[in-house]
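REQUEST FORM: STRUCTURE PREDICTION
Request ID: SP-0412
Submitted by: Lab K.M.
Chain count: 1
Length (residues): 64
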Amino acid sequence: MPAVSRNQKIAMEIAIHHPEDLNPKNKGLAKMSKEKLHEFTSTLSTGLPKRVHPEGRYRSYLKR
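STATUS: Completed
RESULT:
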C-alpha cells in the first residue's frame, strides 16, 4: 500500500529507524511488519500532499 501523504511516509520512516521517537498516538506503527512499513516508505514523495484531511471534513468544499 503506498503512502497517501508526506507526513504518513515520514511517520513510517520513523517507525522503521527510530521507533522510540514516535508520537504516543502513533505507537501502533511500531507493531506493523517491516515489509508493510517498507511498502509505505517506498512511495515517491513527489506529488504527494503534505497532509490529507479526514474524509468528513471540508465535505462542502470538496463538492464544489
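NOTES: The chain has one domain: 1-45.
Reviewed by: T.R.
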